Amino acid sequence: MCNLPNWAAVWLLNSFPRTDTFALFMNNFNIGLAASPWIVLAIVLAAAGVAVYTYRSTLPPVAPARRWTLIALRTIGVGLLLLALFQPVISMLTVTAEEPELLIAIDNSESMGLPGLDSVRIGEARSIAGTVATASELASRTSLISISDSIRSLPPDSLPRVGATGAESRLAAVFSAAADTLRGKNLRAILLLTDGRYNAGPNPIQEAQSLGVPVFAVGLGDSVEPRDISVQQVFTNEIAYVDAELPVEVRVRSAGLQSGGTLNVTLRDDAGVIGTQQLQATAGASDYTTTFTYRPRTPGTAKLTATVDGADAAIGTELTPRNNSRSAFVKVKSNKRKYLLIAGGPNPDVAFLKRLLAEEKNIEVRSYIQKERGEFLEGKLDAAAFRDAEALVLVDFPTRETAPAELATIRTAIATGELPLMVVMGSRVEVNGLKTLESFLPVTLGIGRPTELQVLPSVTDAGKNSAILRGTNLETWSTLPPIFTTETAVQPKPEAEVLATTRIGNTQLGEPLVVTRRLGRSRSIFVSGYGLYRWQLLGDGQREVRGEQGANVLGDFINGSLRWLATHEEQKQVRIVASKPLYNLGEPVRLLGQVYDDSYAPISDAQVEVNVSGGGRSLPITLAGTGSGRYEATLSNLPAGDYFFTGRAVVGGKELGSDEGRFTIGEVGLEMLQTSMNAELLRTLAERTGGRFYTVRQAAQLVKDILSHKGFAPRSIQHRADHQLWNNLYLLLAALSAFAVEWLLRKRSGMM
C-alpha cells in the first residue's frame, strides 16, 4: 500500500462543500495493488529502460528534447498498461464529526391539562420546549414530538396547538421513536416533558435503559397529591341474570384532604339510582371500597355508573370533577344458569356441591349419578341432556364401570367448544377413561397411581389475581383443612394457568391443584384434589361452632368457577361491536364487524349496515370491508352521551344475522385517575440513563446541563470510497493517447 501526502488529501477534501452538522475530522488516501509496490516499480522502470534503449539513436536523428519526449510517452503508455495488470485501487477514507442532536418529547395526554406548579401543565411544557427549540444554543439541533396514545412529529411553530387531548400516555413510545431516529442522526439526549403518569404500553424505564441515551426529564405538576376525590374502578361480573342479585364493587380514592370528611357514593343504571352509600374519608391519601347489590330487571346491556362527591364542607374544592364518575357495562341474560353435573357415584363431594348450588335460586342443576354397571339413576345420558347446559361438571368421573358410549356422548358435546368443562377428581376415577377427554382439559395426565395423599392448598400469584378466587376470602385458604389427592402425575398445558398448588404442612410440593385454561371459545377447570366437602364441613363448620362467621370458601369457589366457565361469547355469524365501551369526548369511535357463513368461514363481500342512535339523532352507516370477513367504520365528532347501535349483514339479498350494542362518549378516561406527578418514576428514569430530573422551577438549568454532558458529543462517521483504476476507461484512454502522440511525433520526425 502507498499513501498520498496529507496535504494533498486536505486539499482534495476542502474542495467539497460541507454541511452545518458535519465538520472535517480526518482523511486518508490509499492506493492498493495486487502485488508488491516494489515489483510494480521495477516493472515500470524496466519499461522506461526499454523506451530509453529504443530511442538511444534514431533515424533520422532528432533533437534531444523530442527524443526524451518520445521516451516519456512510450514509458507512460507501456507503464499504464502494465499498471492495469496489477489491478490498482484508490481508496479514499474520510472521517467527519456529526454534531449531537436533542429530541424533545411533550406529553400530550389529558392529564397535562391539569394545573401544574405555576400554570397549566401543558402550558409549562410548551414554554420549556419553545425556549429550548428556538431560543437556546440547541435551537439548530433539536426535533420535537408529541406523545399520548400515538406519536406525532411537531414543527416548532405548531407548539401553541399542542392541547393535552390524548386519551392515554405511552411514555415508552418515546424511546421506540428515538431508536428509529438513532439510525440516521446523532441523537445524544432526550428531553422529556411529562407528569410521568403512563397508563399504556411497557415500562418506559426498561425501554429507556435499552436505548442508551441520557434522558433529561422535567416533571410537570406536583408530586404531592392534590385535593381530589375520584372513582377508580367499578368492578362486577361481565354477565348477570334478570332478577338475580349481582354484587358491584366500587373503589374510591381521596387525596390531599386536610381533615376527614364524608363522601357520597351513588350507583345508577339506565333506570335510575340503585343506591347511595356514605364513606368516612381520612386525611391524606386513602382508598376505600364499598359494595352495592344490583338486581337487573330486563335483559340486554346495562350501564352501571358510580359517582362520588363530598357530602360536607370538609372536602373543599377539588382538583377536577372529571374523575368523579366511572362506568361499567354488564350483559344481562334472561334465563337461569343451567348446569349439568355427572358423577361416578354418590359421595360427599357430590352431595355438598348439589346442596350449595341448590341454595342459589337462579341456578338450575341437572345431575346424572352413576350406579353399578355404568347406568345412571336418572336414566340414559343422551345428547338432549347437554342442550341447554351452560357448563358441564364431572365429579369422580369416569369410573371403570363407565361405558365407552357415555364417554363418546360427552366428548361430542364438548367438541363444539360451546360447552365449558369442570373436572373434580375422585378416588374412583379411571385415568385412562379421563384421558379420552384430555384434549379439552387444561392438563395432561400421566399413569394412574391410586396412592392417596392428604394435601393443603397454596394459592399462587395467578390465583390471587384470578376472577375465580378473587371473590373468595384469600386469607382463609391458608387455614383450610387437608383434602385428598393421588400420586397420578398432572402436568399443566403451556396455555393453562395454575391457580393453586399443593403442600404438606409448610413443605411446598408445587403440584397443580386448581388449573384453568381459556383457549379460543372453550374454557375448562381441573381440580386434582377431592374431598372438597371438608373445606366446608371441617373448616367453615368449626368456625361456626366457635361463634365465628364462616367464610364459605367452598361455596365461593364453586360459584366463582361456574361463573367463569359460563362467561363466554356465543359464536354468531354476525358480530358488530364498538372497539371499546367508553370513549373520551373528541375521541373517534370505531365500529368493528365480523361476518361468517354457516360453516363459520369468513365472508368478505357482505353488505354490513349499522344504525347508530343517541345524542338526539340517528346515523345510518355502512361498514367497509377490510378482508377476511372483517368490516370497519369510524365515527368522529360525536357529542357526549349514550349511544346504541343495531346492525345487520346481507349477502345476495339474504340476511345472515344481526347484532346490537352500545357505547358512551364523554366518560372520564385513564388520564384522570392519577392526577399527581410521578416524580419517582421520572427521577429513576433520568438516573438510570445518565440524565437528570428537574421540576418546572429548575428547568432553566437544563440546556447548560445537556451541553456539558459528556455523552452529548459529536460522533465520527467514516466514509470510504474505492475507485478501481484497472478497469477504468480513462486509464485506457490515457495509455492510448500517449501511444497516439508518440506515433504522431515519430511521423512528423520522418521516423515512420
Could you explain the architecture of this structure?
- By secondary structure, the protein is an alpha/beta fold.
- It is built from 16 helices and 37 strands.
- Strands 18-17-19-20-27-26-25-22-23 form a 9-stranded mixed β-sheet. Strands 28-30-33-32-31-34-35-29 form an 8-stranded mixed β-sheet, with no helix packed on it. Strands 6-5-4-7-8-36 form a 6-stranded mixed β-sheet, sandwiched between helices.
- Strand 32 (617-627) and strand 33 form a beta hairpin.
- The longest helix is centred in the first third of the chain and has 22 residues, at 64-85.
- Mean pLDDT is 82; it is low at 1-25.
- Tally of separate helices: 16
The dominant shape is elongated
What is the residue-averaged pLDDT?
82
Portion of residues within helices: 10-25%
Low-confidence stretches: 1-25
Distance between the ends = 41 Å
Strand order of the largest sheet: 18-17-19-20-27-26-25-22-23
Structural class: alpha/beta
Main β-sheet: number of strands, strand sense, barrel status?
9 strands, mixed
Work out the strand percent.
35-45%
* Record field, number of beta strands: 37
- As a whole number of angstroms, the C-alpha radius of gyration is 40 Å
List keywords for this structure.
single chain, 752 residues, alpha/beta, eight-stranded mixed beta sheet, elongated
Helix and strand arrangement:
Blueprint (H helix, E strand, L loop, with lengths): L1 E2 L2 H8 L8 E11 L4 H18 L9 H22 L3 E10 L2 E7 L13 H14 L7 E6 L3 E4 L17 H11 L4 E8 L9 H8 L3 E5 L8 E8 L3 E3 L4 E12 L3 E9 L2 E10 L2 E11 L5 E11 L14 E9 L3 E7 L4 H11 L4 E7 L21 E5 L8 H12 L5 E4 L6 H4 L8 E3 L6 E8 L1 H4 L9 H4 L5 E4 L3 E3 L3 E9 L2 E13 L2 E6 L5 H13 L7 H14 L7 E5 L3 E2 L5 E7 L11 E8 L2 E11 L2 E6 L5 E11 L2 E12 L13 H11 L2 E4 L6 H7 L6 E10 L4 H20 L4
Parallel strand pairs: 4-5, 4-7, 7-8, 8-36, 10-16, 17-18, 17-19, 19-20, 20-27, 29-35
Antiparallel strand pairs: 1-2, 2-3, 3-37, 5-6, 9-11, 11-14, 12-13, 12-15, 15-16, 21-24, 22-23, 22-25, 25-26, 26-27, 28-30, 30-33, 31-32, 31-34, 32-33, 34-35
Helix pairs in contact: 2-3, 3-16, 5-6, 6-14
